[in-house]
Amino acid sequence: MTKTELRILYKKLRKQLSNADIEEKSLAIANGVLALDLWDKTYFHIFLPIEEQKEVNTEFLLHLLSGKDKEIVVSKSDFSTRKMTHFLLTDNTKIKKNEYNIPEPIDGIEVPSPKIQVVFVPLLAFDLNGNRVGYGKGFYDQFLAECHPDTIKIGLSFFEAEKSIADVFENDVRLDYCITPEKCYPF
């Protein structure tokens, strides 16, 4: 299937999830992350979910990272440049939803992309080769390209892998892992 076809399909599948499904699956995903060998890292980038899009609830992961004293980084998106600016999430960070309902920090201590060691990546679908389908704006591909080559990229998905995505581009950045409620896919 193409990215466009997968976007349509997985948005539809997500709409069918109840709030209880989202909570249960998000907790299972967080538990799956616990098994990964990445706890020697310090800087973890996490997305704050767009609830209206029924994204993975990363609150469980936030508690996990906080409990392990990790530096948590969240982003603010600039839709005119399609770039993301990254900020340390602290007790003083004020979060506000933008016009697309994306929760974002208003401001804070900026963290450069190369300093981030682990990135949890939102997605709609992914394949057995570590390719992902997002919303199609390219924010994460651009951000991940700015990260250090050793940065660990982890997709979070409610659904299992597709066999392959038909229209992968050369600038698409592949994942290192994808965690679903059922299993961990290493790439």
Automatic annotation (TrEMBL):
Keywords: ATP-binding, Magnesium, Metal-binding, Nucleotide-binding
Catalytic activity: (6S)-5-formyl-5,6,7,8-tetrahydrofolate + ATP = (6R)-5,10-methenyltetrahydrofolate + ADP + phosphate
InterPro entries for this protein: FTHF_cligase (IPR002698), FTHF_cligase-like_sf (IPR024185), NagB/RpiA_transferase-like (IPR037171)
Cofactor annotation: Mg(2+)
Signal peptide start-end: none
TM segment ranges: none
Name of the top EC class for this enzyme: ligase
Coiled-coil annotated spans: none
EC number: 6.3.3.2
Protein name: 5-formyltetrahydrofolate cyclo-ligase
Organism: Flavobacterium ammoniigenes
Lineage of the organism: Bacteria, Pseudomonadati, Bacteroidota, Flavobacteriia, Flavobacteriales
